[in-house]
């Protein structure tokens, strides 16, 4: 349930960001991926967006605590339902940290933790 709220918040936030109701520094258009879905759920889109934002914030030598902190920083930039984002981060933080340390592509990271399946095509 919390994940569905988190996804809804992200989608609404991007719509509000485009409408000018949310300042531009909360969600950048360039940071939001839109993909054709090939047997995928929305969690894949959300995961890749969060991973991309976190990768921009972390240094190469980031420690586990730094990575978890940056995941929460990304959540703090979502003005609505921050608690849902934090629950998402809590649920996947171990796997996300492990994958972020590998410096893989965001899509690959989300595939590796099981949130993306199949092939994504950027549109």
Please characterize this protein's 3D structure:
By secondary structure, the protein is mostly helical. The protein has one domain: NK-Lysin. The chain contains five helices and two strands. The termini are far apart. It comes from Acipenser dabryanus (Yangtze sturgeon).
Strand residue percentage: under 5%
Count of domain modules? 1
Number of helices: 5
Distance between the termini: 28 Å
The residue-averaged pLDDT reads: 70
Question: By helix and strand content, what is the structural category?
Answer: mainly alpha
Identify the CATH architecture.
Orthogonal Bundle
CATH superfamily: Saposin-like
Shape, per Cα inertia axes: globular
State the helicity in percent bands.
55-70%
| CATH structural fold name | NK-Lysin
Quick one: CATH class?
Mainly Alpha
Largest sheet at a glance? 2 strands, antiparallel
Residue runs with pLDDT of under 50 for 5 or more positions = 16-25, 27-39
E-strand count? 2
SSE topology string: HEHHHHE
GO biological process, one term: lipid metabolic process
Domain Saposin B-type: 40-120
Signal peptide: 1-17
Protein name: NK-lysin
